[in-house]
Amino acid sequence: MTDKINISSLPDFDASHYLDSNQAIAEYLTAIIEEDNPALLAAALGDIARARGMTEIANAAGLTREALYKALRPNAHPRFDTIAKVCKALGVKLHVEAV
């Protein structure tokens, strides 16, 4: 018989561990944008910023590290100018495509 796994004992998934290339980051952001959820986009940008280094991204975006954490936490609703600054600091662009 197999032992049951207690879900609460499993570690939390952290996407930042897998965002180790520009290609992985672009694919991740593309998938997130398709979900049409601003809070999810903020959290995804936070994952990418953690993968690249929050302090470095905060400095490049002209934000404090604490403000960046607050703006990119799960379920946050950051202003578009914050998203634009973070994207620029991360070296990524958001593209619009006709559907």
From TrEMBL:
Top-level taxon: Bacteria
Pfam families, alphabetized: dnstrm_HI1420 (PF21716)
Annotated InterPro entries: Cro/C1-type_HTH (IPR001387), HI1420 (IPR014057), Lambda_DNA-bd_dom_sf (IPR010982)
Gene Ontology molecular function terms on file: DNA binding
UniProt-listed PANTHER family: SSL7038 PROTEIN
Protein name: Addiction module antidote protein
Species of origin: Crenothrix polyspora
Lineage: Bacteria, Pseudomonadati, Pseudomonadota, Gammaproteobacteria, Methylococcales
